[in-house]
Amino acid sequence: MFAGLKKKAWPVANHCILILSCMVMLYPFIIIFFTAFKENSEVYTNPVGFPQKWVLTNFTGAWAEAHLGRLYINSIIITVSCVFVSLFVCSLASYAITRSAAKYSGKVYLFFISGIFIPSQLSIIPLFKMVKDLHLNNSYAGVIMVYIAGAIPLGIFMITTFMRGLPKEMSEAAAIDGCGYFYMYWKIYMPLMGTVAATFGILQALAAWNDFLIPYLLLTDETKRTLTTGVMTFKQQYSSNWGFLMAGIMMMVIPIITAYLFLQKYIMKGLTAGAVKG
């Protein structure tokens, strides 16, 4: 009897804990949402309640004052570029590691994925010096190259794990039919790695879109700032206008939250597939 009650009570308690955790994490977003639709005078008298008067001028004002259109374009250029280039580089490297019969290919693989264990903060100073020596500071190319370098360890780990799980008979049959090395990569391996490629691309896009430190250090030109650094400047300028500030934050986070909600199943599917096939 007690065993049956315990078996039934555990899922209920588990769901209650999860619901409570979700409420705690959603609370700041709810406050941001309400504040974005309030007049600035109401923020001080009614900081956590529903807006007494819903206003949209905070969004139009924040868009114009913070030049969010330009910031969006800058963030999209950097994010899309680093996702596609890093995916191409990591998939080629993973294909070479997987197909190579040399004894040192395993050591090359370990060398690349060892970067996962190195905190990115430790490499900030040498990265900044390297970008400056290459005269790539204050340019999109410098930021994109840093993001690509940071994405290589995780990308090679995920894609190599997936490729090693594919049947060897498939590549052997393609070789018998006369497929060349790069033709096999493009026509056979690339179409099959759609799930893991989507997972890696989404994770890399989230990291690039949300990153603050690298654009803050490398992009000093106001016309090249990203959303994260631009909103920070907007915060310093309009720190007393909470409606403007929260509206700007909402317009920054809505695209990435929406993308995650629609694409989270691909993230879980890709991570699960890589883990099982590894």
The total tally of domains equals: 1
The total beta strand count reads: 0
- The helix count comes to 13
Biggest beta-sheet profile: none
Weakly predicted, low-confidence segments: none
Structural class, from helix and strand content?
Answer: mainly alpha
CATH superfamily grouping: MetI-like
CATH architecture: Orthogonal Bundle
Question: Your description of this structure?
Answer:
With 278 residues, the chain is mainly α. The chain has a single domain (58-277), classed as MetI-like fold (Orthogonal Bundle), CATH 1.10.3720. The protein has helices spanning 2-36, 40-45, 57-65, 68-99, 105-113, 124-133, 140-164, 168-176, 181-192, 194-210, 213-218, 227-237, 242-277. Helix 1 (2-36) crosses helix 13 and helix 12 (227-237) runs antiparallel to helix 13 (242-277). The longest helix has 36 residues, at 242-277.
Short description:
Helix content is 78%, strand content 0%.
Which helices and strands, and how do they pair?
Blueprint: H1 2-36, H2 40-45, H3 57-65, H4 68-99, H5 105-113, H6 124-133, H7 140-164, H8 168-176, H9 181-192, H10 194-210, H11 213-218, H12 227-237, H13 242-277
Helix pairs in contact: 1-13, 3-13, 4-7, 4-10, 7-10, 7-13, 10-13, 12-13
